[in-house]
Amino acid sequence: MASALQAEDLAPLSMKEIIACLKDVLHFSREERQKKDLLLEKVVKFTPPEQVEFLRTAALQKSSIRQPVCQKRKWEDVAHPRRTAQCLDKGEKELDDEDGYEPLKYLMLPTEEERKACYCKFYEATSSVALPAGICGACARECGAMDENLERMALSDIPNSYRLVPKTLHPAHDIYDGRLFQPEAVETDGQHTFVSICQVCLDKLWKPGDKPLRYSLANNLWIGRIPWQLQVLTFPEQLLIAHLYPRVFVFKLFLK
Question: Which helix (H) or strand (E) segment is 186 a member of?
């Protein structure tokens, strides 16, 4: 039987390489993606046994690679400046041939076709289709593609879903199998029920505990449905009555 995975075994791998190896196996929060000690702690604790040897093999292969070190380069740069300049010129020429880089075209204005192509790429990357938004069923937050990814999963597959059970029921609660969810995030397909959950709530649900999630509706944060009078307000009217501005909105205006 293989020994347990240790943090030292993954030392040669970078954080991006570890996340890439386990992208289809584990879900990492934003804090875990930024701090390697938290990342290694989760990988050591939750990595399935069939993935342990794969990670060890990747770490051994990377540690076996050694980059050659030139010890005489500094002396050669001082003693032979002319030869160094020739080598630099040669390196630039090889770079021009391999990557198509042309220094003479630096700061040249783009053509009309290139400008239109850049604008099309920017428009596609910032359109409503490229930046979809959805509602998290656990915390009722509106999540976008640039913030937290939403994961659609069956109600029975939600880990530790007992943490989403409210302690005090209200007649207007939207209860699904005893769990309190935002109805906009719930889809029913025949006998199966699917819920969209943001990555922040899902990371918390993977950890067992007795208390509800901090920002979940079950933690006394349910306020009911929005009254019709507030639903029909225009955006300027919403800004006039808002106490806080948690977001910055950018609008595109088009001629009718």
Answer: strand 186-189
Q: What is the dihedral of CA 194, 214, 243, 197, to 10 degrees?
A: -20
Q: What's the pTM value of the predicted model, to 2 decimals?
A: 0.47
Alpha helix segments (H runs only) across the chain = 15-21, 30-34, 36-46, 49-63, 73-79, 81-99, 112-125, 199-205, 228-231, 235-241
Q: Tokens for 112?
A: 């009309």
Give which of 17, 87, 90, 107 is closest to 57, Cα–Cα.
Answer: 17
Q: Does residue 3 register a pLDDT over 80? A: no
| Domain ranges across the chain | 7-64, 133-206
Q: What percent of the chain has pLDDT over 70?
A: 82
Q: Which helix (H) or strand (E) holds 195?
A: strand 192-198
Residue with tokens 């501005």: 245
- CB atoms closer than 10 angstroms to residue 96: 13
142 beta partners: 135
Instruction: Tell me the residue length of the chain.
Output: 256
Tell me if 142 sits within 8 A of 135, measured CB to CB: yes
User: Could you give the CA distance from residue 18 to residue 9 in angstroms, rounded to a whole number?
Assistant: 12
HSE of 181, CA atoms in CB hemisphere, 13 A: 25
* Reported confidence tier of residue 148, pLDDT bands at 50, 70, 90: low
Distances 53 to 20, 44, 131, 173 between C-alpha atoms, Å = 15, 12, 38, 47
- Could you tell me how far CA 240 lies from the centroid of its own chain? 33
